[in-house]
Amino acid sequence: MAVKAVIFDLFGTLIHDKFSSLNYPDFLSGMAARLKLKDEEFAPLWHGSYFDRTKGKFSTLQENVIWVGERLGRVFDST
User: Fold this and answer.
1) How confident is the model at residue 12 (pLDDT cuts 50, 70, 90)?
2) pLDDT-based confidence at 19, cuts 50/70/90?
3) 23 contacts: CB under 8 Å, gap ≥ 6
4) Handedness of CA 29, 33, 38, 41 (dihedral sign)
5) For the purposes of burial, counting CB atoms within 10 Å of the CB of 65, is it exposed (0-12), middle (13-18) or buried (19 or more)?
6) 46 with 28: CB under 8 angstroms?
7) Helix (H, G, I), strand (E, B) or coil at 65
8) pTM of this prediction?
């Protein structure tokens, strides 16, 4: 049988899990903490790079994290 439809639930609007839109701020806080960055510095740059992420400017999420780090004067290893 051929696939007739595909449903994407990007921000937990249909299925609520640990990565739902309600938990997204905590997810970003956790990312910032692991990178030893302040939430108030990390989050605006992460949000600001959303369209670049969706359009493929960054090959990986790691590249996006490195880009954020560069804007904040931090150098992150890509490994």
Assistant:
1) low
2) low
3) 12
4) negative
5) buried
6) yes
7) helix
8) 0.72
